[in-house]
Specification:
411 residues, alpha/beta, Aspartate Aminotransferase, domain 2, Aspartate Aminotransferase, domain 1, 2 domains, 4-stranded antiparallel β-sheet, 16 helices, 15 strands, 13% strand, globular, binds pyridoxal-5'-phosphate
Length: 411
């Protein structure tokens, strides 16, 4: 139908589909959803307005929508073992704003991880609304180890007295100790918020400590390692349920995206199965293997490796910038993103590092052998960033590998 109505958009979608099929996608925040999730996302639920919450809507005709939202909430509560879940945030960024809005009066201090050190924009980075509506305090990683330094975080919190401390990252290759964050927050009388957007799938799969018994409030996207549609959730203790729900609607948003809610429910069902536990374990295992291979090729991995799903590589010792490397990799059909490394001497527009991760390739079914191949190609690309021929040759091999793996969502 789309082909007939709008051949231009149809053809662009087809091209993007091919691109996703034929490339090695190492952007750690991306994934492939299942056909079931895709079907729910593209359903007629997009036609319905449902401002409010189940049984308390502002429009009629909600009997099925209410059930869908209730199922999504029940599944999230069960999977993550929490009291209360709001599945309406449009995405991770508005979920974070809603979390602050729920707990911290506007103008008060929020403390999060600095963006160039691995934090997210919405953790108080200066150009973000989070830093305009609230007063940001930013912690950084240790200069020597590039690891979170919980004592330094405590000292900063003690001095600044933030109302909320946020743990969570977009470019931190190690595990986060939520228990330690909670101790710091308790000592300074702050709320503790965990933003598990990147690692929600690892938490669901039991391969990363869950923030659930420690954090007052947890935000997460649903489309990264959790392998759902683009969306988000806020998880919290009963105590904050009302404040959270009010902050999302009517505080920040209007009607929820019901098609997304349904797809989140489907993704949560998938994430509750034994297969997902295996997946999460393999994501971490693949990252570990990839890191080991890359270290063998002389790449400088921030913190010396990884124990989650992502790897941050400082390209300085290869005499390349992150952007140069990321662009060359893309030409070879391997997608990642240029990323700052802690204490980066280059600009955020052309930083020193690249960030790669394994959630998407693991969904395809890739394992140790493929990680070895990918590491080898990354090395070859780094030695041939300006060699079109060589990049083209690697691209052919990448396509060959991808054709061996069926993509559940888009085949
Ligand atoms: C991706 C991410 C977000 C934002 O999610 P969007 O859906 O892009 O708005 C917030 N926090 C963290 C830690 C993330 O990784």
């Amino acid at each position: 139908m789309l082909k007939k109505v709008d051949s231009k958009i149809y053809s662009l979608i087809q091209k993007e589909k091919e691109r996703q099929k034929e490339s090695v996608r190492l952007i750690p925040s991306e994934n492939y959803v299942s056909k079931a999730v895709l079907e729910a996302t593209g359903s007629v639920l997009t036609n319905k307005y449902s401002e409010g919450y189940s049984k308390k809507r502002y429009y009629e005709g909600q009997e099925f929508i209410d059930s869908i939202e209730e199922v999504a909430i029940a599944r999230a509560k069960k999977l993550f073992k929490v009291d209360h879940v709001n599945v309406q945030p449009y995405s991770g960024s508005p979920a974070n704003l809603a979390a602050y809005l729920a707990l911290v009066p506007v103008g008060e201090k929020i403390m999060g991880m600095s963006l160039p050190h691995g934090g997210h924009l919405t953790h108080g980075w200066k150009v973000s609304a989070s830093a305009k509506f609230w007063k940001p305090v930013q912690y950084v990683v240790d200069k020597k180890t590039n690891l979170l330094d919980y004592d330094a975080i405590y000292r900063l919190a003690k001095k600044e007295k933030p109302r909320i401390i946020v743990a969570g990252a977009t470019a931190y290759p190690r595990k986060i100790d939520f228990k330690k964050f909670k101790e710091v927050a308790d000592k300074v009388g702050a709320y503790f918020m965990a933003d598990m957007a990147h690692i929600a799938g690892l938490v669901a799969g039991g391969v990363h400590q869950s923030p659930v018994s420690y954090a007052d409030i947890i935000t997460t996207t649903t489309h990264k390692s959790l392998r759902g549609p683009r969306g988000a959730m806020i998880l919290c203790n009963k105590k904050y349920a009302k404040a959270v729900d009010r902050a999302v609607f009517p505080g920040l948003q209007g009607g929820p995206h019901n098609n997304t809610t349904a797809a989140i429910a489907v993704a949560l069902k998938e994430a509750s199965g034994v297969g997902f536990k295996k997946y999460a374990k393999q994501v971490v295992e693949n990252a570990r293997i990839l890191a080991k291979e890359l270290l063998g090729y002389g790449f400088n991995l921030v913190t010396g490796g990884t124990d989650n799903h992502l790897i941050l590589i400082d390209m300085t010792n290869k005499s390349l910038s992150g952007k140069q490397m990321a662009m060359a990799l893309a030409r070879a059909g391997i997608y990642c993103n240029a990323n700052t490394v802690p204490y980066d001497k280059r600009s955020p527009f052309d930083p020193s590092g690249i960030r790669i991760g394994t959630p998407a390739v693991t969904t395809l079914g890739m394992k140790e052998k493929e990680m070895g191949l990918i590491a080898g190609w990354i090395k070859r690309v780094s030695e041939n960033v300006d060699n079109k021929n060589e990049l083209e040759k690697i691209h052919k091999k990448v396509k060959g590998l991808c054709s061996d793996f069926k993509i559940t969502g888009i085949n």
